[in-house]
Amino acid sequence: MKIKSLEDLEKIKEEGLKNLSGRQGKKRGRITVAMGTCGISAGAKDTLMTIIDELDKNGIDDIAVVQSGCMGLCEVEPTVEVQIGDQEPVIYGNVGIEEAKRIVKEHVIGGRILGDLLVKKSAQ
Question: What ranges do the domains of the chain cover?
């Protein structure tokens, strides 16, 4: 579609926002994987893909998986933030493939925080 007026641009914006809110929908929680330079070099892409695969394998579709920039925790990359419902967000560090599988199994499914991977609980 060619943009010929400000009204055309507004329509495109409204459609985009509507599509975005539809994609996010009603989710029970969110997992954020830090994908800054340090995270990527530490293996965050594998961590992200493992989380997505594990959620799919377990039929979990009410958890949004998103990427972010650097969380400022370079010394413990890859880092993953998990927020379920109204619970306080939890940040895990040094999350490789096996740790990502544990996060899905034990935290997302089982509701238990993994103390050995815990970096911090963050207030929003």
Answer: 24-121
Determine the Cα–Cα distance for residues 82 and 112; give it in Å rounded to an integer: 11
Instruction: Count the helices and strands in the chain (H runs, E runs).
Output: 4, 5
Judge whether 62 and 24 are in contact, CB under 8 Å: no
For residue 46 the two structure tokens come to 């594998």
Residue carrying the six token digits 């039929």:
59
What is the spatial distance between Cα 54 and Cα 86, in angstroms, rounded to a whole number?
23
CA proximity to 104, closest of 114, 118, 115: 114
Local confidence band at 11 (pLDDT 50, 70, 90 cut-offs) = confident
pLDDT confidence bin for 3, thresholds 50/70/90: confident
Is residue 12 a contact partner of residue 89, using CB atoms and an 8 Å limit? no
What is the identity of the amino acid at 60? I
- Quote the pTM value: 0.76
C-alpha to C-alpha distance for 96 and 117, rounded to whole angstroms: 11
Q: What are phi and psi of 71, to 5 degrees?
A: -95, 0
* 24-121 has CATH 3.40.250.10 classification: no
